Amino acid sequence: MIGTIRKHSSWLWWFIAGLTIISFVFFMGSGAVRNSGSVPAADDLGKIYGQPVTAQDLAKAEGEFYIYYWMHYGQWPNKTTDISREEQQREIYIRLLLGRKAKQLGIQVGEDALVAAASDFLRSLSRNGQPVAMEKFVGQYLAPEGLSVSDLQNFLRSELVVQQMIQMLGLSGALVTPQEAGQLYDRENQEIDAQAVFFAASNYLAQVAVAPDAVAQFYTNNLAVYREPDRVQVSYVFFNVTNYLASAQTELQNTNTFEEYVDSAYRQYGATEFADAKSPDEAKAKIRAVLYRNRALQDARQAANDFATAVFAEEPAKAENLVAYAKQKNQPFGITAPFSSSVGPEEFTAPAAFTKAAFELSADEPFAGPIPAADGIYVIALANQLPSSIPSLEQIRSRVTQDFQDEAAVELARSAGTNFYYTLAVQMALGKSFAQAAVGAGLSPQVLPPFSLSSADLPDLGAGARIGQIKQAAFTTAPGHTSSFVPTGEGGFVLFVQQLLPIDTTKKSSELPQFTEQVRRARQGEAFNLWLQGEANRELRDTPFFSKQAAGAAQ
To answer: What is the mean pLDDT of residues 238-246?
Structure first.
């Protein structure tokens, strides 16, 4: 579908979304299901380049940032502890600043470029080289997070704008001479021949003595680690789309114009959206399946609405009304195990809106829903609230004991590694090789495959160390010498640099042009980031988030 579009105005995106997603659009119109809390309240959102920031501005930038983060890290920012709400706010404001600067500079993105970017983006999600269907991407990834086609459009347009700004404002960094590029290539691709001895904690677990007093002391010293966050339990009724597929299929098949619509959809989108189909009949069967599912989702939504209306109307409003009414109507229900706001239910993959709604429930407002998900609709009620607490040692003794053993084993491994390093220096001074000294100490030296600074991984490295740690030790150790003992999360290692291998001149000649271009782009990015830092320091200082951040730093 995307690949067949050429020169059209932006309204066509909405038209396409309507045809492709069809009745699935109810997901987009079901209310504000995404609200991560990263956007501040709309009292005074500050100014950028003299213009006030509105709540709509920030909501648009937040949608762009969500897709950006998912694209780069494979998860949504509100479902990971890797990025805080404060960091999200900073990134959202910076995206807003970039958008306004682009307008000042007159940077615009043509529809052809936008359509090409959309096609490339959807193709990047597929393994067969064909673009992922827009309906599938929206339904599986965006809709459960309260995002829509317009958010994807805004994100792609923003990314193209930023690329143009990097080329314009980072131009000074693009000047790289052939000699400098050659030297950088040698530095990045010079391979090392090395050996290592790894000290893994798992090899020392059997040596750990588990004394009850020691475990108790370990528990006391690490109470903060065992603190449970605020958690909730909810009762829920799930209206699964599969329960409505049969009736949806019957209803649509009895519609006089249904097959005409299928034929029309195939003529417009069959070559792109269903390019993997082996025949027109197979493609049309897939189109029908999409239509059946979308209609079933509508029916599930209506059933959830009717159920929620009846439950919410009961007086007095009590959380247990949901389960009671579900039993009355023979409607299956469930109760989740306690879950935190950062993890969500363990029984099923819930959309962000489910978890957010669960933590907003109270005795006065015990219900929420309907809440859309990719495969159905939820209606929920508060079952239990569990405030943050620290379990007693007896409740989690097995976990604490295992943690105690693991930590003690790491210390034993590190002690063994440190002792080997000092013994190794003596043995090699007496003329023994690294391998001979290791074997003499009862250890197994590992010959590493050649690697360079540009190596992304090392086969068979396992959990003994990360490649970054190996490279750090190798490229700070002179050939013919050993590194010091390098501690790792699993224990540690000692590395011997045997020699630097010669540069492959044929390979260098072939790769240097592309490498030079990569260096230029990196330099452009660095120059652009320096510009952005200065611009953000000036233009964002009066926004609420950055003012608060500055005040905190001053204190």
So the answer is: 93
